[in-house]
Design goal:
The chain is an all-alpha fold and about 190 residues long. The protein is built from 10 helices and no strands. Helix content is about 80%, strand content about 0%. Helix 3 runs antiparallel to helix 4 and helix 6 packs parallel to helix 8. The relative contact order is 0.06.
Length: about 190
């Protein structure tokens, strides 16, 4: 079994578990008596919807993930909701709409690493590597975990611009920091 098949099995197991939790929470909401209890259960349901939406996106079920993202209400879900909608639209090939959603999200959450990354991915897909690079550099600036993703995306944008020396130095750094990740070595 290859890595992709294992990830698919894992995502399907996670999806089934989340669906079970979601159905249980919906049933509890129907039986809830107090306003306070209903509010807490609704928050739990919204959390589960967001988790389900992202898992559906990971499974390639973009329309379903998009529908769940759109159904969630509440400011506390704003950044994640914009990012999920943008990802679903991007995966579905609706790049202009995805760009507009991510730009709208960035007006509300200007320091969102995830939204800047999503916008950079769209620019990269559309071949605008300079704009893509600017987005990824901004994402790196706002990445609280200093994860490898934005750096890797920056290297890809630099390659798109033909700046291979700069891209190789980033890839070399990623190989040194994450020796267990084969994609960096293969990119080198």
């Amino acid at each position: 079994m290859n890595k992709g098949e294992l990830i698919s099995l894992y995502n399907n197991d996670v999806l089934k578990a989340l669906q079970g939790k979601y159905l249980c929470a919906r049933k509890q909401l129907q039986q809830a008596r107090s306003k306070w209890q209903r509010r807490r259960l609704q928050e739990n349901i919204n959390d589960l919807k967001m988790d389900l939406a992202w898992t559906l996106l990971d499974c390639g079920r973009h329309e379903e993930g998009l529908a769940l993202c759109l159904s969630v209400c509440g400011r506390q879900y704003g950044e994640r909701k914009f990012n999920g909608i943008g990802r679903a639209l991007t995966e579905m090939g609706h790049y202009d709409e995805a760009r507009r959603i991510l730009e709208k999200g960035l007006k509300e959450f200007p320091e969102s690493c995830a939204l800047w990354t999503g916008l950079g991915i769209i620019h990269d897909i559309l071949g605008d590597h300079f704009e893509s690079l600017k987005c990824f550099e901004t994402a790196i600036k706002f990445d609280p975990t200093k994860s490898s993703g934005p750096l890797y995306n920056k290297a890809l944008a630099l390659m798109g611009l033909g700046s291979y020396t700069d891209a190789v130095s980033i890839i070399d750094h990623l190989i040194e920091e994450y020796p267990e990740e084969p994609k960096y070595l293969s990119e080198r």
